[in-house]
Design a protein that fits this description.
mainly alpha, two-stranded antiparallel ribbon, about 0% strand
Length: about 450
Amino acid sequence: MYFNFNSGVNNGYDDDFDPFFLRGGNKEDELNCTLPDILEFPNFMRRKSILYTIICIFLSLYLFIMLAIVCDDYLVPAMERLCYTLRMSYDVAGATFLAAATSAPELFVACVGTFITKGDIGIGTIVGSSVFNVLGIAAICGICTGMASPLDWWPITRDTFWYMVSILVLFGVLYDSKVNIYEAAGLLVFYVIYTIALALDRRIQGLFRKTDQERDMLTEDPLQREEEPIKSFKETLTSRPEPDDGIVKKIWWGIKYPAVVVLAITTPSARSILALSMLLAVIWISIISYFLTWFLTIVGYNIGIPDSIMGLTILAAGTSVPEVVSSYIVCRKGYGSMAMCNAIGSNTFDIFVCLGLPWIIMLLITKEDIVMHSTGLAITIGMLMVTALIVYACFLITKFVLGKFVGWTSLVVYIIFLAISIYIEMAMLGKVCDIESEEYSQYLDK
């Protein structure tokens, strides 16, 4: 989720019509144009340049690689050890620890927007990223893993229910176009209730079905297993391609090895200090995702892609990369329920915590209610609920098997969502301030 995207409104639409919450008021009301979102980031590489574009594209690609290494070598192994140590089921771990860890970038970006760039704390592209989390992850795990993963109906139903609750609570908070401190605190209280419900999940399950205490539990110690063992610091640094490996594999190893070294030096292996390994992995994910969002914003600004379109497409997917990578990895390991619970649980975390916490901080600082446009609220809520229900309906049809049917259906629905949302946004686009012109040059160096 990325915050504070703005664009003008024209072509016959009401000035307050904002179906995807991509616009804020602020300085734009005083101008005859809207300021580009590149101003929400540090004052570096703000001028349009082909060189900046090329640099940012290559940096973004390398950050994707680095993010995959963090998730594969540190975050997921730490989650496996956590599940084994706490005797926690895969799905509960995916909906709590893994969802919170992969949603750290959204919370990080929100806090940066509050205290560093002083941007608006709106909902931003929560619609785009939430829809991508559900449809995109289902599509990638269903199509690209090459395997059909049977899922337990209970955790998918449970997390879908709580996601619906979070959407309805968000509707109630934004219905009057204002957010006060009690409403913001209410979001956090609901998340506490959600985590308590997950902690008591086995007992609640017992009310609806006979439970198996060993179901979806990790029975093999990750430190002792022979297949895909957790690497130590020395094993990570000394790992080399085999002599008979192809040239492509050797080149790939050479490309990613600098990132492997940096991460190994700064992040302890999950074999050693579990809590510190998980904490530093989350910090790395947050930092990488912030820079990834920044560089992709620079690319979009130079190419000329409108901010609101970037927010609904590239940036929505970009800030969901941790969820995608971690879900793909755990799905390949056979933890399908953990993958989908991570996807749905991340959205619940985004609404309750990534919105609630920054809003509380802002309200405590300013002592004033946060005012937001809400004329497009019905469309927003509708989009979120319909996409989640479509994925759940696909699971019902396939008897809860995450395979190609769910994957391709999710992909088609996501393409339709993008087509509709881009059409609406394109119809509402207004003039964007040229910050390199003399008239608006004062914003370039801020």
